[in-house]
Amino acid sequence: MEREKKSGNDVHGLVIVHTGDGKGKTTAALGLALRAWGDGLRVLVLQFIKSGGDYGERKGFAALTAADGRMEMRSCGRGFTMRGHVPPEEHRRAAKEALADARAAIVSGRYDLIVLDEINYAVKFGLLRVEDVIDLLKARPAALHLVLTGRDAAPEIIARADLVTEMRLVKHPYQAGIKAQRGIEF
Ligand code: ATP
Ligand code: MG
């Protein structure tokens, strides 16, 4: 396989977790996706909470997909649960569907790197069970890199990961009343 030849036959799929209360979990995962895509890997980004819409990353990744189909982004969620106008069972159903989508993608062998964006958040808010996520990790082919993002990653997930980074809040513009900036926050 081309990927193994390029990296000296030592492909070792990693379980990577980005968690913590500071900004940068999703954007670091998207940075990895870009790096992997740039190096010829086949990449899928599955968003568990976001519902599509006018986000910069969607437009950026759509351009990459158009340039080369090895980059896919799917938004399977129903928006932020905190806003409260979507009934909880809708969120739960969307999360279950995203989980099934993730499983199908993981076992398909069609990807080298899959980002499960906000999957930790989906567990934290009770939309998914931690066991469901552990089952995904167990189903992972040995060469597949999997990135899981979101605050408050469950200890069971951290225990199974190879690489865990905690973003720590030092300062955030929201604290000074500065509104979300296009291109930085969305
Ligand atoms: P990003 O997508 O910018 O990498 P993130 O994935 O680390 O951020 P999430 O927990 O997914 O952050 O939160 C999504 C949004 O909330 C982002 O727009 C982010 O800027 C904002 N945010 C993140 N951390 C904080 C914080 N500590 N206080 C206020 N807003 C925050
Ligand atoms: Mg995020």
From TrEMBL:
Name this polypeptide is given: Cob(I)yrinic acid a,c-diamide adenosyltransferase
SUPFAM superfamilies: P-loop containing nucleoside triphosphate hydrolases (SSF52540)
Annotated Pfam families: CobA_CobO_BtuR
NCBIfam families: cobA, PRK05986.1
Transmembrane domains' residue ranges: none
Name of encoding gene: cobO
Database matches in CDD domains: CobA_ACA
Molecular-function annotations in GO: ATP binding; corrinoid adenosyltransferase activity
Keywords associated with the record: Transferase
EC number, UniProt record: 2.5.1.17
GO biological process: cobalamin biosynthetic process
